[in-house]
Design goal:
The protein is an alpha/beta fold and 393 residues long. The chain has a single domain (4-60, 69-388), classed as TIM Barrel. It is 44% helix and 12% strand. The protein contains 16 helices and 12 strands. It has helices at 4-10, 23-30, 33-40, 47-58, 103-114, 128-135, 152-164, 183-188, 202-205, 208-218, 226-237, 248-254, 267-276, 297-308, 323-331, 341-372, and strands spanning 59-61, 77-79, 82-84, 88-90, 118-120, 140-144, 169-173, 259-264, 280-283, 313-316, 336-339, 388-390. The strands form 3 sheets. Strands 4-11-10-9-8-7-6-5 form an 8-stranded parallel beta sheet. It has a two-stranded antiparallel sheet with strand order 1-12. It has a two-stranded antiparallel ribbon with strand order 2-3. The structure holds ligand FNR. Residues 38-39, 91-94, 121, 123, 143, 173, 262, 284, 286-287, 317-320, 338, 340-341, 344 line the site of ligand FNR. Residues 12-391 form the FMN hydroxy acid dehydrogenase domain.
Length: 393
């Protein structure tokens, strides 16, 4: 089977550069000010977002020599009891149609094409059923922005739809019950969730239970007053939350499949995730878009892995920008890395082909990096803390 690296070399016309550090500046030039502010922007001063990226530089890979390795490394990983060809997934990102008219459909197709799981956001600008169709035989997980308890019938409806549409795992995001203080969006007066023209709420607008409730409350159909409907949808979920750890059992009762809690940053919360019996967590700080001055996500990863890594699957995101970053997160114990902004930039620069290019470039880079470091596979028996040294605190 041809390797990701060799496929990269065979590209006659890569849709844009292989330099992953150029994707953000190139995409910034190609986007509207509001989209760029939303995608690139962070909470507050951007301290946490910067720390996310810088944290990777504190750890270095120490290459080994004279390791017999005629084959390129096997990138296979195991998550939720399944084998995956690659240790990455497309993390949940909302309103993808603001970046390309095909939005979620382009991403869902690129994921299926590259054997990369697709995590669909509740804040998507495409409905669940159409994105699922575009993803076809791909592996897809549904990310939940969890409606408040008084709207539990809406939650149940979304979970039912996701299940029927072939989403196999539920990713519950815990760090976003209100959007963070984001100066770029504030300057631009931009909140994609409240823009009925950009429908960051397609899932809500197409939800039969939400639509029935809206009609009862407002005496008209969603289409008759889109701006009221969009506001009502936002109110169903934000601001604030009335969920505590006790409420996870509600999701377990209504979701027939594995549950992953996204946004875990403390060891104590990781232990609670084990106690409530979920199957996985994503160590994530939402790319530094929620809490400013917060710890880098990578700093917490090894501590959390030490506490719970043998009891549930630990996934990771926030700050992954190149193959070496994936190698380091995996070496520190993550079983899979969610890619966020890089694939959004790919979507901006090249639609479905652009997203594919980002996945292939990251994986090709990872594959060669492991190979040249004498690391035979992405399995923890080869890719673990022994391959890293911490250069500074
Ligand atoms: C996000 N993220 C996110 N997470 C989530 O659970 N639901 C969502 O709808 C979104 N939407 C979203 C939009 C945009 C534009 C970005 C950049 C991010 C967070 C995402 O899943 C992931 O945690 C971060 O993107 C990881 O940080 P980096 O690596 O992209 O900086």
């Amino acid at each position: 089977e041809a390797s990701v690296y060799q496929n990269g070399l065979r590209y006659e016309h890569p849709p844009f550069t292989f330099h992953s550090n150029q994707w953000e500046p190139e995409a910034a030039k190609a986007m509207s000010a509001t989209s760029a502010g939303y995608a690139i922007g962070n909470a507050g001063s951007g301290e946490t977002a910067r720390k996310n990226v810088e944290a990777f530089k504190r750890w270095s890979i120490v290459p080994k020599r004279l390791i017999k390795s005629e084959d390129l490394p096997d990138l296979t990983t195991h998550v939720l009891g399944h084998e995956f060809q690659f240790p990455i997934a497309a993390g949940p990102v909302g309103v993808l149609r603001i970046f390309n008219p095909d939005g979620e459909l382009a991403v869902a197709r690129a994921c299926a094409e590259n054997n990369v799981p697709y995590v669909m956001s509740t804040a998507s600008s495409t409905n669940i059923e159409e994105a699922a169709e575009a993803n076809g035989k791909g592996v897809r997980w549904f990310q939940l922005y969890w409606p408040k308890n008084e709207a539990e019938e809406v939650t149940i409806s979304m979970l039912d739809r996701a299940k029927k549409a072939g989403f196999t795992a539920l990713v519950v995001t815990l760090d976003t019950y209100i959007l963070g203080w984001r100066p770029s969006d504030l300057d631009n007066g931009y909140n994609p969730f409240l823009r009925s023209d950009q429908i960051g709420t397609a899932i809500g607008m197409s939800d039969p239970v939400f639509r029935r409730r809206f009609k009862e409350q407002h005496g008209c159909e969603v289409e008759d007053d889109m701006s009221a409907a969009v506001s009502e949808w936002a109110r169903t979920i934000f601001p604030g939350t009335n969920h505590g750890w006790d409420d996870i059992k509600f999701l377990q009762e209504h979701w027939d499949g594995p549950i992953i809690l996204k946004g875990i940053q403390t060891v104590a919360d990781a232990k609670k995730a084990v106690e409530v019996g979920v199957q996985g967590i994503v160590v994530s700080n939402h790319g530094g878009r929620q809490v400013d001055g917060g710890v880098s996500s990578l700093a917490m990863l090894p501590r959390i892995v030490d506490a719970v890594g043998n009891k549930l699957d630990v996934l990771f995101d926030s700050g992954i920008r190149c193959g070496a970053d994936i190698a380091k997160a995996m070496a520190l114990g993550a079983r899979m890395c969610l890619i966020g902004r890089p694939y959004v930039y790919g979507l901006v620069l090249g639609g479905q082909a652009g997203v594919s290019h980002v996945f292939k470039a990251l994986l090709g880079d990872l594959e060669l990096n492991l190979h040249l470091s004498g690391i035979l596979s992405a399995d923890p028996k080869h890719l673990n803390r022994d391959v890293l040294v911490k250069e500074s605190d």
